[in-house]
Amino acid sequence: MASATVRRKLSALSSLFDYLCERNAVTGNPVDGVKRPMANGNEGSTPALGDSQARKLLEAPPADTLKGARDRAILATLLYRGIRREELCGLRVKVLQSRQGVTHFRIKGKRDKIRFVPVNAAAQRLIEDYLILAGHRTDMQGALFRPVTNNRTGRLDKHLDPASIYRNIVRKYGLETGVSAEVNGLCVHSLRATADTC
């Protein structure tokens, strides 16, 4: 059996015998002290991008269109800071805050935990370019990243849908640049993994 299978089976047996010990059905756990094989060698299963692949993906959106400027800012934010796509979609203009002279995102994460994440200089420049082009820099309560078209309701002042980050940005530019072919399993988490390895 593979190492991961052996580890999983030993874990299941250990949990069963722990339960039986608590109920006084057995006197001890025979799995205690059994050495478990290493699995994965602490290697993550999410593929990360190399420097040239990240650069290729970041430069794919056209710089002279509103959608291109927005997509470059989004990709830079994901690549340099590794925030979750739900967190990215929930950002408002007001979350760009200066703390001791450094621009930070004030991010509300899982379980409503607040954290301050420094904004990379390149990402900050791309975000500022996007906000100037989009014209909503002063709408502090409004969504930071917004749709550029909306065929259903016509509203452009709402937050982006997290699913569209993968479908319309990461996958789209990954296919256009060939990065999807180079990185097996390219997804939004790949950009998060890339930020973690930098």
Percent of sequence in beta strands: 5-15%
According to DSSP, the number of beta strands is 3
Enumerate the spans where pLDDT stays under 50 for 5 or more consecutive residues.
Answer: none
Overall mean pLDDT stands at: 88
CATH superfamily descriptor of the largest domain: Intergrase catalytic core
Strand order of the largest sheet: 1-2-3
What is the class of the largest domain in the CATH system?
Mainly Alpha
Shape: elongated
What order do the helices and strands come in, and which of them pair?
Layout lengths: L2 H20 L28 H9 L6 H16 L3 H5 L6 E4 L2 E7 L5 E5 L2 H14 L27 H16 L1 H4 L5 H10 L1
Antiparallel strand pairs: 1-2, 2-3
